[in-house]
Amino acid sequence: MAIYLFACSDGSKQEKKESESVAEMPDDNYNSGEVNYLDLGRTIAEQSQATLARNLVTAINTGGTAYAVNFCNAKAIPITDSMGKALNATVKRVSDRLRNTLNQANQNELNQIARMKQEMNEGGTPKPGLLEINGKMVGYYAIVTNELCTKCHGTKNETIEPATLKRIQTLYPHDKAIGYTANELRGMWVVEMDNK
Fold first, then answer.
1. Potential cystine with 167: which of 61, 66, 93, 163 (Cβ 3.0-4.6 Å)?
2. In the chain, where the domains are located
3. Which pTM value belongs to this model?
4. DSSP 93-148
């Protein structure tokens, strides 16, 4: 299942380093005891996505897409962090094509992104992934662009209005998160859960 993201720009959050202790799960329905971590992570990612999307749509309706870029810059990471706390998990969004360098995918995440892109290139739907890392269960859930995403991540002066592009360039001078069309992998939700 793909999770469709309505806002992809990132705020500022340091990424935690992961050590070398990584164990791949045997299949997509891995259960540890009574907990299905793949489903639990999906629920957490979907709730986080819904909250972020609701706030983004409000920002767009308030001041347009240029205003929404400011909103995402200031509020996207705090909203994601607060959802993680409320849902007893660590939640973040990562990408291989960055708007904010603090949301750079680490090597495990880049591997998952590459796998999901391959699945999409072969005409499939990007499947979620699950790894055990340092005693935590880490779920990976695709963020696939839609038409609304292209207003901030599409083509300069075509789907991205000049005022929005100017705001992006001001807030993110090294932005690499443009040139997307609908139905492309923008990145992933990463959900880290305690292994119970």
1. 66
2. 3-11+22-194
3. 0.83
4. EEBSS-SSGGGB--HHHHHHHHHHHHHHHTT-PPPPEEEEETTEEEEEEEEE--TT
